[in-house]
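Re: that backbone. C-alpha cells:
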C-alpha cells in the first residue's frame, strides 16, 4: 500500500501575498458528488450529489488511486470520490485500457480526462449538475440525491490534444484503428468532439447517466473548463517509457511512405521503342534485300544469255557431266559416309521387316503389351498444386512449412448473394441526422431469407462410410471446445445468426430509437465490440468468438459506405486436413452435398453465385469428360482423311480397295500405342500422368506419325520398281531414302523434349518426359511394324513478307500477357463462372497473407521483441511496422491492412493495469477476467518493473494463458480466437517456434494482380529479413498465401520459356547437324526457320489474346517439335538433291517431300483442329484450337513456302561426295536416266 507524498506548504507568506494581490476571489475546493447511490440500470449506479469539500480517501483505496490517478496521490489524498467510485472507474476503463495503453501518452491524457471528472477536488470549477432524482440510502437511513445529468466543461485544446495523441493507435487483432472501436463512428468520421461525446453518452451502454461535454478554452457561464497539460504521442510520459511507436503515432514516423515512381516507358519519337526499332529494322532489311535482288538481276543481264540462268557455285557440276569439277573436302566425305551408313542400315532393316512381317508385328505387339502392363501402376495427378508447382520451388517449400507448423489453410465455401427484386431502404436516425440509405440486400426481409438459407446450409447432412457429416463436424471453430460455434463470416453474425436479435427494435408510436439499422451501423464500425449502444446491448463479435470485418461480408459498396452494399458475401471456412485422408473425404462429401443443395436451391428474391473448395477440380474433371466426344470426333476426322489421302482412289466402286483404311487404322493404332507405351513405362517408375499428357501428346505424336506415314507411303507410290527388284528390296530402298529424314525429325524432337525435362515447371517437365518417349517409340514402331504392314498391304511466297511478319511478332511479343484467368479453366455452362465474375465485381478484400517468422527467433529478449512488435519501444523497422508501412501504400504493395500482431496484443493483455491476466493465488492457474473470485490476483505486480514487458521466463509463463483466453466484455484482448494457431510452441511449450502475422491483400482481379501481389510481398519479407539481421541465423521471414503456389510459376515463366525454347532449338540444331551429314549451314537454316515460327507464335498469342502460362508454354515447346516436321524433311531433301542449282534443288525438295508434308501433317491436323472449335471448354478453344491452328498454319507456310525460297537463295552447296555416291548407286540403271537426264 502506497504512502501519500508530503503536502506542499499552503499557508506561507507567498500564498498570503498572492491572496492579497489577487483581484479575483479564490474559491475553496468543492465537490459535486461523492459516493454512489441508486441503480441506473443493470449493474450501473448513479453518483450521489454532494457540494461539500473533498474527503480523505480511505487507505484501502490508496493502491487504486496510485494505479489510476497518481496525480491526486499526495497529502491526505482528499478527493471527491470514494473507493467504490474508483473501482467503477477502473472497470469502465478496461476496454480503453486494452486498446489505448499501447500508446502511453494517449492513455495518460484519457486517464486525465476521467480522473478529473471522477475524483478532482476542484470538480465544481468545471462540472455543473443539471438534473438529479431523490434517493433514500437504506444503509445510512438518510435521503440523498442521485445525479442523472451534468455538464462537463472541457478545454478545446485539451480535447484536440487528447484526440491527436490517440487517433493513430492501432488495434492489432482487428486490423483497424482503436478509435474505430471506441468512437461509435467509423474512424474516418471520428474527431475530438464526437469521441468524447460518445464516451459520455448514456447510449453507449457503459455510462449510467448523461454527461454533456461543453468545449471551450475560456470560462463559460462562470465555469472554468478543465484544460490540464497533455502529452503528445511523440512525448514520453515519464522516464521509464518512451514516445508511442511509429505504428501508433504518425508524427514519430515522419512523412508517409511513398511508392517508388514507375519506370518511364521506353519511347522513341513518342512511340514504343520496340515497335520503332523493329519497323526501322524491317525497312532496312527490305532496302538491302531489294538492292541485292536488283544487283543479281543486273549481273545476270551482263554475264548470261538468260536472266533465269541460275547463279550457283556448283552450277557447272552435275552428276552426268563425267568430270571432276571440284575437290571433295574431308567434311563432305564424312557427311557422305554418315549419310550412306544411315541409308544402308535403314535399307537392310526395311527389307528385313517386309520379308518377315509376322515376327516383326508379333514382336511389336509383345513390346507394346509389356510397356502397357505398366498401367497397373498408373497414377494420375489432378491436384493443382502438384501440376503447377515443383516440390523444390520456394512457394511449395513455404506451403509445406506453413502446413506443418500451423496446419493447412482452411477450405473455403463461399456464396455471393444479391437481391434483384428488392429496393433500397432508407433509415432515418433518431432524434436527428441525415437519412442513411441501405442497399437492396440489407432490408430486414431479405436478411431473414438469407439467414434461413444460412441455417439450411449449416444443417446440410452428408454421408461418408455410413457416418453422417454436418457443418459442425468439419468447420473451423476457433474457441472449441469451450465454444463449438462454427466460423461463419456473414453479416448475419452481427445479429448472432438469430432471427430474434435481427428483429430487436426499440421505440414508441412515433419514433424508432434503435433496430437492426442502428446495430448494423455500429457493428461495421466496431466489429469486435461486445456491446452496442442500444438498450439491447447486443454484441457485434461473431458467435465463433472473432470479429466479422465488413469488407469480408459485404460487396458492391462505395468507399467505406458499407450500408450501400449491393451484395452479401457468406464464407464457411472448413478445416483442411494434413495427412488425414479420412477426415478430408468427410469434408469432400459435405462439399458435394453443399454444391448439390445450392444448385437446386430456388428463391426468386435471391440471386446466388457460389463456389466450394472442390468446385474447380470438379468442373475441370467434368469439362474433360464432356470434351471426350469432341476429341474423338477430331481423331475420327483425321483418321478418315488419312485413309482417303493415302490411297489412289480411281472410282467410287474401288473406294474400299484403293483407300488405305487398314494403313490408316494401323497408323492411328501405332500413335496410340506409342503414347500408351510412354505412359506405361513411366508408370513403372512411379511417375504420375497429367491431364496435359493425355490431351496434348496424342495430338503431337499423331502429327509426327502421320507426317512420317505420308512420306513413306507417298514416296513408295511415286517410286517405280527397278528391273529385277523384289518388293522387299524396293520398300527397303524407299525406306533407306526417307528414313534418315524421319530419323532426323524424330530424334531431334526426342532430344529436344528430353532436354525439356530440365525445366522446373512440373507441367512442362512431365509433358517433355512423356512426349520424348512417345515420339521415340512412335518412330521405332513406324520403321518396324508399319513397314511390315505396308509390305502386306502392297502384296512459294517472297521472303520479305515473312520477315515482315517476323518483325511484327518480335515487336509485340513483349506485350503477351502472363497468367491464366481461372474462369478459362471452367466449361461454358459452369456455375463457377458466375462466381468468378461476381468475385471480382463485389469483393473488397483480397486473400489473407501471412508473414511467417521461421523457428529460431528469440522472443523472450527485449532485442528480439523489438525486432518484431509494433507498439511502444519497438523498432521503427520491425516486422509489424514494415508490414504496416506497406499497407499505407497498398495500391503499390497490394497489402490492404495493418497486420494483426499477437505479440502486441499479448503485451497489452499482460499489463498489470488490465484485468485480463490473472491467476489463482492458490494454484497459479489462469483465471479468466469474467471470473469473480477474490483468490484471482494479477499475473504481474503493479510496480514499475511489473509494467514493463515480460521477458525471459515470464514471457513464456503467461503466453499460453493469453492464447487460451477467450474474449469477453471484461477483456477483449483474449488471444484464443484470433491467435490460437499463430504461435507454434516447441520444446514442450518452453520456447516459441514459428509464428505468423496476418493481414489481407488488396482486391486482386487479374492474373497480373495476383503475380504482382506475390512479388511485392516477397520483396517486403526479404527486406524484413535483411533489416532484422537474421540472414546468417538460418531462419527468415517469408509471406504465405494460398494462391502463391499456383502463381509462383509466372514469376519465372519468361525465363522458363526462353530456357526451354532455347534448349529445344539448340538440341534441334545439333541433331540436325549430325543427321544431315554435318551440314552445319543447313542446320542453321532449319533452326532459324523454326525460331521464326516460334516468334510468330508469340505474335499470334498477342493478336488472339492467348496468355503465356504453363499450358501455352507446353504448346510452344510442342510447336518446336511440329516445326521440325515441317522443316527438316524439306531441308534434307534439298541437301541430298542431285540437281544442278539451288533453285532446282528447292523445287525438287518441295515437289517430292513438300507434297507429303502438306497432305500429311498439314491437312490431317487442320481437319482435326477445326473440330476443337466446338468444344465447351474455354481452355480447349483458346489454348488448343487457337494455338494448334496457329502451329499448323505457321508451320505449313514457313516449311512449304518460306523455307524453299530461302534455300533457293542461301541454301547449302551441293555435297560432291554425296553426288558421286548417288551416281555410283544408280550407274547403269533406269533410275539414272530418270534422275539425271
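Recovered sequence:
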Amino acid at each position: 500500500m502506497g504512502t501519500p507524498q508530503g503536502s506542499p506548504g499552503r499557508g506561507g507568506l507567498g500564498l498570503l501575498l498572492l491572496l492579497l494581490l489577487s483581484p479575483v476571489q479564490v474559491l475553496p475546493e468543492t465537490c459535486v458528488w461523492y459516493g454512489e447511490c441508486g441503480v441506473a440500470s443493470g449493474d450501473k449506479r448513479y453518483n450521489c450529489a454532494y457540494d461539500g469539500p473533498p474527503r480523505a480517501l480511505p487507505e484501502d483505496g490508496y493502491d487504486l488511486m496510485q494505479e489510476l490517478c497518481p496525480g491526486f496521490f499526495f497529502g491526505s489524498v482528499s478527493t471527491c470520490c470514494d473507493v467504490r467510485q474508483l473501482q467503477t472507474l477502473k472497470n469502465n476503463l478496461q476496454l480503453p485500457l486494452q486498446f489505448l495503453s499501447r500508446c502511453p501518452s494517449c492513455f495518460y491524457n484519457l486517464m486525465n480526462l476521467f480522473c478529473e471528472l471522477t475524483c478532482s477536488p476542484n470538480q465544481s470549477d468545471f462540472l455543473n449538475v443539471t438534473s438529479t432524482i431523490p434517493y433514500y440510502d437504506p444503509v445510512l437511513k438518510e435521503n440523498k440525491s442521485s445525479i442523472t445529468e451534468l455538464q462537463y466543461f472541457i478545454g478545446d485544446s485539451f480535447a484536440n490534444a487528447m484526440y491527436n495523441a490517440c487517433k493513430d493507435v492501432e488495434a492489432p487483432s482487428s486490423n483497424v484503428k482503436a478509435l474505430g472501436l471506441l468512437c461509435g463512428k467509423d474512424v474516418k468520421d471520428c474527431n475530438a468532439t464526437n469521441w468524447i461525446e460518445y464516451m459520455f453518452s448514456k447510449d453507449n451502454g457503459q455510462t449510467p447517466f448523461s454527461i454533456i461535454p461543453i468545449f471551450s478554452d475560456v470560462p463559460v457561464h462562470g465555469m472554468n473548463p478543465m484544460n490540464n497539460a497533455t502529452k503528445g504521442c511523440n512525448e514520453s510520459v515519464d522516464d521509464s517509457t518512451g514516445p508511442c511507436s511509429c505504428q501508433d503515432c504518425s508524427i514519430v514516423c515522419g512523412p508517409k511512405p511513398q511508392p517508388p515512381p514507375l519506370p518511364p516507358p521506353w519511347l522513341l519519337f513518342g512511340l514504343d521503342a520496340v515497335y520503332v526499332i523493329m519497323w526501322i529494322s524491317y525497312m532496312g532489311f527490305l532496302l538491302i534485300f531489294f538492292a541485292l535482288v536488283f544487283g543479281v538481276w543486273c549481273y545476270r543481264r551482263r554475264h548470261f544469255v538468260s536472266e533465269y540462268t541460275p547463279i550457283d557455285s556448283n552450277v557447272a557440276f552435275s552428276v552426268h557431266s563425267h568430270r571432276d569439277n571440284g575437290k571433295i573436302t574431308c567434311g563432305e566425305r564424312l557427311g557422305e559416309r554418315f549419310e550412306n551408313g544411315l541409308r544402308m542400315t535403314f535399307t537392310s532393316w526395311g527389307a528385313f521387316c517386309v520379308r518377315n512381317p509376322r515376327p516383326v508385328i508379333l514382336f511389336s505387339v509383345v513390346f507394346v503389351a509389356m510397356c502397357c502392363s505398366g498401367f497397373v501402376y498408373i497414377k494420375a495427378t489432378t491436384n493443382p498444386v502438384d501440376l503447377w508447382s515443383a516440390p523444390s520451388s520456394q512457394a511449395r517449400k513455404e506451403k509445406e512449412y506453413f502446413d506443418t507448423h500451423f496446419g493447412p489453410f482452411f477450405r473455403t465455401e463461399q456464396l455471393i448473394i444479391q437481391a434483384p427484386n428488392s429496393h433500397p431502404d432508407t433509415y432515418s436516425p433518431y432524434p436527428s441526422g441525415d437519412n442513411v440509405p441501405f442497399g437492396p440486400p440489407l432490408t430486414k426481409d431479405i436478411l431473414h431469407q438469407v439467414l434461413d438459407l444460412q441455417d439450411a446450409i449449416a444443417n446440410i447432412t452428408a454421408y461418408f462410410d455410413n457416418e453422417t457429416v454436418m457443418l459442425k463436424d468439419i468447420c473451423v471453430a476457433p474457441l472449441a471446445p469451450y465454444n463449438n460455434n462454427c466460423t461463419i463470416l456473414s453479416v448475419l453474425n452481427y445479429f448472432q445468426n438469430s432471427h430474434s436479435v435481427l428483429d430487436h427494435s426499440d421505440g414508441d408510436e412515433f419514433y424508432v430509437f434503435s433496430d437492426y439499422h442502428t446495430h448494423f451501423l455500429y457493428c461495421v464500425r466496431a466489429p469486435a465490440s461486445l456491446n452496442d449502444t442500444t438498450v439491447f446491448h447486443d454484441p457485434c463479435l461473431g458467435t465463433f468468438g472473432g470479429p466479422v470485418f465488413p469488407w469480408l461480408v459485404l460487396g458492391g459498396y462505395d468507399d467505406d459506405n458499407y450500408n450501400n452494399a449491393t451484395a452479401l458475401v457468406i464464407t464457411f471456412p472448413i478445416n483442411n486436413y494434413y495427412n488425414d485422408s479420412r477426415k478430408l473425404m468427410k469434408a469432400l462429401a459435405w462439399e458435394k452435398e453443399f454444391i448439390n443443395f445450392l444448385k437446386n436451391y430456388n428463391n426468386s428474391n435471391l440471386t446466388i453465385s457460389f463456389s466450394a473448395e472442390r468446385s474447380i477440380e470438379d468442373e475441370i474433371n467434368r469439362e474433360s469428360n464432356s470434351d471426350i466426344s469432341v476429341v474423338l470426333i477430331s481423331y475420327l476426322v483425321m483418321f478418315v482423311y488419312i485413309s482417303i489421302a493415302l490411297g489412289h482412289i480411281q472410282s467410287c466402286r474401288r473406294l474400299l480397295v484403293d483407300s488405305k483404311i487398314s494403313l490408316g487404322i494401323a497408323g492411328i493404332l501405332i500413335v496410340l500405342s506409342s503414347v500408351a507405351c510412354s505412359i506405361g513405362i513411366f508408370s513403372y517408375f512411379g511417375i504420375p500422368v497429367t491431364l496435359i499428357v493425355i490431351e496434348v501428346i496424342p495430338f503431337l505424336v499423331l502429327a509426327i506419325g502421320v507426317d512420317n506415314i505420308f512420306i513413306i507411303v507417298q514416296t513408295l507410290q511415286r517410286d517405280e520398281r527397278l528391273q529385277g527388284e523384289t518388293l522387299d528390296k524396293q520398300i527397303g530402298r524407299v525406306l533407306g531414302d526417307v528414313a534418315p529424314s524421319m530419323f532426323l525429325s524424330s530424334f531431334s524432337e526426342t532430344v529436344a523434349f528430353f532436354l525439356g525435362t530440365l525445366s522446373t515447371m512440373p507441367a512442362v517437365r512431365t509433358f517433355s518426359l512423356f512426349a520424348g518417349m512417345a515420339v521415340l517409340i512412335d518412330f521405332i514402331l513406324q520403321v518396324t511394324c508399319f513397314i511390315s504392314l505396308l509390305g502386306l498391304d502392297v502384296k512459294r511466297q517472297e521472303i520479305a513478307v515473312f520477315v515482315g511478319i517476323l518483325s511484327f511478332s518480335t515487336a509485340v511479343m513483349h506485350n503477351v500477357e502472363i497468367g491464366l484467368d481461372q474462369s478459362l479453366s471452367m466449361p461454358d455452362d459452369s456455375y463457377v463462372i458466375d462466381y468468378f465474375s461476381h468475385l471480382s465485381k463485389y469483393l473488397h478484400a483480397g486473400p489473407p497473407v501471412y508473414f511467417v517468422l521461421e523457428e529460431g527467433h528469440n522472443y523472450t529478449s527485449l532485442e528480439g521483441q523489438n525486432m518484431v512488435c509494433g507498439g511502444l519501444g519497438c523498432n521503427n523497422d520491425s516486422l509489424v511496422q514494415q508490414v504496416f508501412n506497406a499497407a499505407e501504400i497498398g495500391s503499390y504493395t497490394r497489402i490492404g491492412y495493418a497486420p494483426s500482431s499477437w505479440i502486441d496484443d499479448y503485451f497489452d493483455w499482460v499489463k498489470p493495469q488490465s484485468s485480463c491476466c490473472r491467476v489463482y493465488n492458490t494454484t497459479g492457474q489462469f483465471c479468466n477476467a469474467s471470473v469473480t473470485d477474490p483468490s484471482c490476483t494479477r499475473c504481474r505486480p503493479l510496480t514499475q518493473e511489473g509494467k514493463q514487458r515480460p521477458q525471459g521466463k515470464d514471457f513464456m509463463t503467461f503466453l499460453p494463458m493469453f492464447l487460451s483466453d477467450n474474449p469477453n466484455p471484461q477483456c477483449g484482448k483474449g488471444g484464443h480466437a484470433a491467435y490460437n494457431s499463430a504461435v507454434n510452441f516447441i520444446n514442450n511449450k518452453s520456447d516459441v517456434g514459428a509464428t505468423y502475422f496476418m493481414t489481407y491483400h488488396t482486391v486482386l482481379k487479374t492474373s497480373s494482380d495476383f503475380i504482382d501481389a506475390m512479388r511485392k510481398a516477397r520483396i517486403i519479407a526479404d527486406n524484413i529479413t535483411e533489416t532484422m539481421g537474421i540472414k546468417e541465423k538460418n531462419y527468415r521471414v517469408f509471406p504465405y498465401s494460398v494462391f502463391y503456389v499456383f502463381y509462383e510459376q509466372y514469376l519465372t515463366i519468361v525465363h522458363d520459356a526462353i530456357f526451354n525454347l532455347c534448349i529445344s532449338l539448340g538440341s534441334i540444331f545439333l541433331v540436325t547437324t549430325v543427321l544431315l551429314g554435318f551440314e552445319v549451314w543447313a542446320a542453321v537454316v532449319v533452326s532459324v526457320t523454326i525460331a521464326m515460327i516460334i516468334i510468330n507464335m508469340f505474335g499470334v498469342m498477342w493478336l488472339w489474346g492467348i496468355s503465356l502460362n504453363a499450358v501455352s508454354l507446353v504448346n510452344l515447346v510442342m510447336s518446336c517439335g511440329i516445326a521440325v516436321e515441317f522443316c527438316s524433311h524439306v531441308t534434307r531433301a534439298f541437301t541430298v538433291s542431285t540437281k544442278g542449282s539451288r533453285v532446282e534443288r528447292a523445287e525438287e525438295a518441295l515437289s517430292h517431300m513438300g507434297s507429303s508434308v502438306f497432305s500429311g501433317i498439314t491437312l490431317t491436323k487442320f481437319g482435326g483442329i477445326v473440330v476443337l472449335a466446338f468444344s465447351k471448354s474455354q481452355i480447349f478453344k483458346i489454348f488448343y484450337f487457337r494455338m494448334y491452328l496457329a502451329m499448323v498454319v505457321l508451320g505449313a507456310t514457313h516449311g512449304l513456302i518460306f523455307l524453299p525460297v530461302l534455300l533457293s537463295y542461301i541454301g547449302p552447296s551441293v555435297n560432291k561426295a554425296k553426288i558421286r555416291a548417288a551416281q555410283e548407286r544408280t550407274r547403269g540403271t533406269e533410275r539414272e536416266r530418270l534422275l539425271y537426264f
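The first helix runs from residue 13 to 21. The mean pLDDT is 82.
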